[in-house]
């Protein structure tokens, strides 16, 4: 018995030491990149100055800045970089207290340039106790880094604040349900300190959005008391700079040359209670965000319009009495009488986009823990694609009947594997690949523009 206890203690000690040894004291992430700007996020274990430099190959001049880290905001800070060159790969380095961290990012092409785009997307990290492993952490990120994307879209559930993360082989530090600001910050830092996560975030830039588990499973906007706390920690830990007049705004857009414009939705903080019956008064986006979405997508001159929604349009989630995604469909894909989804608002948005002549529309989603490519044809004259990826590391889901109200056709579906999606946009077409944790391509599908 004593021998077994000693062995168990040694294993726990080794796990703790492995996790501690791998955790860097200086964390850096770049994001919100445009053709001429970027945002650099930093967390330093010790307050003080962080010197930042970004330099393109063959250029003598560098963009430099100094970020002062204090004890506020959990010793995090953000530095906007300006004066960058479009369509340029920048190598950056951050220096503080004798430590140097290096990485790179790519700026967007000019709006009128039809340049190739490569992006990754996925979501759902660290759910169901499937957190950082002692033997390699979140290994899927190393696979993703090898693809050298122009950027990564992190589509929700970046932490599972409402789930304990413990068990054999898991790096300690997240075995609690977050209730306080300090605990929410600790959960974000636990994720960010993972060396494999750092490998991806040093290889490219990121645009992140939250879903429910950054606060609490299936939470509904202002009805959730913990929402302001979870939102604050999320904003502190990602390189997002909301407008001064709306300091908690998370929905936003960015352009990547002539071929692509991306619209990132916040499907959480403005939504009606999930338990409300669906109807014209129920909203997931709120009036201002819904108007912003319709107006901006309709006005976009990019070839492809890509909308990022953390929850699916056609895959029902939650219980019938409190649906969490857009759909009202039941187990067989048919609408339920007295449904509690958000399908009325969804269909109104799609109708407005159709009436405004929007073509080449793609929705990127996560949340359902399986991979799928879906073509929707709600009317004879209007169609679009919904592309599903995830989880990065969470419980494994399975495909299910789709909402027949959108006249869907599943072109590929696969459960049972951690996965991410890769999209390549070129002048002639868009190509989507769904890829598992080991780098095996599950499916490749090419879509031509209308």
Keywords:
single chain; 450 residues; alpha+beta; seven-stranded mixed sheet; six-stranded mixed sheet; 7 helices; 22 strands; 19% helix; globular; disordered N terminus
Q: Describe it for me?
A:
The protein has 450 residues and is of the alpha+beta class. It is built from seven helices and 22 strands. α2 (140-145) links the parallel β8 (117-122) and β9 (151-155). Residues 1-22 have low confidence and may be disordered.
How many beta-strand elements? Answer: 22
Main sheet: strand order: 11-12-13-16-18-17-19
End-to-end span in angstroms? Answer: 70 Å
Number of helices: 7
- Basic shape: globular
Percentage beta strand: 25-35%
Helix fraction, binned, reads: 10-25%
Largest sheet: 7 strands, mixed
- Given helix and strand content, the structural type is alpha+beta
- Low-confidence residue ranges: 1-22
Output the radius of gyration. 22 Å
Mean pLDDT across all amino acids:
94
Order of helices and strands: HEEEEEEEEHEHHEHEEHEEEHEEEEEEE
Summarize the structure.
The chain is of the alpha+beta class. It contains 7 helices and 22 strands. Helix content is 19%, strand content 30%.
Layout of helices and strands:
Layout: H1 2-22, E1 26-31, E2 38-44, E3 48-56, E4 63-69, E5 76-81, E6 89-96, E7 99-106, E8 117-122, H2 140-145, E9 151-155, H3 181-192, H4 195-203, E10 205-209, H5 227-236, E11 252-256, E12 260-264, H6 287-299, E13 304-308, E14 318-319, E15 322-323, H7 343-355, E16 361-365, E17 371-379, E18 382-388, E19 408-414, E20 419-426, E21 429-436, E22 441-447
Parallel strand pairs: 8-9, 9-10, 12-13, 13-16, 16-18
Antiparallel strand pairs: 1-2, 2-5, 3-4, 3-6, 6-7, 8-20, 11-12, 14-15, 17-18, 17-19, 20-21, 21-22
């Amino acid at each position: 018995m004593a021998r077994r206890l000693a062995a168990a203690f040694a294993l726990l000690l080794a796990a703790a030491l492995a996790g501690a040894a791998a955790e860097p004291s200086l964390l850096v992430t770049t994001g919100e990149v445009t053709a001429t700007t970027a945002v650099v996020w930093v967390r330093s274990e010790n307050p003080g100055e962080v010197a930042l430099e970004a330099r393109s190959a063959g250029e003598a001049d560098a963009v430099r800045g100094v970020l002062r880290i204090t004890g506020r905001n959990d010793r995090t800070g953000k530095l906007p970089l300006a004066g960058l060159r479009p369509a340029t790969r920048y190598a950056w380095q951050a220096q503080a207290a004798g430590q140097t961290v290096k990485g790179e990012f790519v700026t967007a092409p000019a709006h009128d340039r039809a340049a190739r785009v490569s992006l990754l997307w996925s979501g759902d990290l660290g759910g169901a106790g499937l957190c950082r492993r002692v033997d390699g952490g979140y290994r899927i990120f190393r696979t993703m880094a090898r693809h050298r994307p122009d950027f990564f879209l992190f589509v929700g559930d970046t932490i599972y604040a409402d789930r304990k993360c413990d068990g054999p082989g898991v790096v300690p530090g997240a075995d609690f349900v977050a209730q306080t600001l300090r605990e929410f910050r600790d959960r974000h830092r636990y994720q960010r300190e993972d060396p494999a996560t750092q490998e991806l975030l040093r290889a490219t830039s990121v645009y992140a959005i939250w879903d429910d588990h950054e606060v609490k499973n299936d939470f509904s906007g202002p009805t959730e008391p913990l929402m302001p706390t979870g939102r604050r920690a999320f904003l502190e830990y990602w390189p997002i700079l909301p407008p001064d007049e709306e300091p908690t705004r998370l929905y936003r857009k960015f352009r990547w040359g002539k071929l692509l414009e991306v619209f990132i939705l916040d499907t959480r903080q403005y939504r009606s209670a999930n338990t409300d019956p669906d109807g014209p008064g129920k909203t997931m986006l709120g009036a201002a965000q819904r108007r912003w979405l319709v107006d901006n997508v309709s006005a976009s001159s990019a070839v492809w319009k890509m909308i990022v929604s953390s929850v699916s349009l056609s895959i029902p989630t939650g219980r019938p009495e409190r649906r969490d995604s857009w759909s009202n469909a039941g187990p067989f894909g048919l609408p339920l009488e007295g449904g509690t989804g958000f399908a009325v608002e969804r269909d109104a948005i799609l109708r407005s986009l159709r009436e405004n002549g929007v073509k080449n529309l793609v929705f990127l989603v996560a949340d359902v823990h399986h991979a799928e490519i879906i073509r929707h044809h709600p009317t004879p004259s209007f169609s679009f694609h919904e592309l599903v990826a995830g989880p990065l590391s969470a419980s494994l889901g399975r495909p299910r009947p789709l909402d027949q109200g959108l006249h869907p056709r599943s072109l590929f579906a696969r459960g049972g594997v951690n996965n991410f999606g890769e999209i390549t946009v070129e002048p002639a077409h868009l190509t989507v690949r769904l890829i598992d944790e080991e780098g095996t391509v599950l499916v490749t599908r090419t879509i031509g523009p209308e």
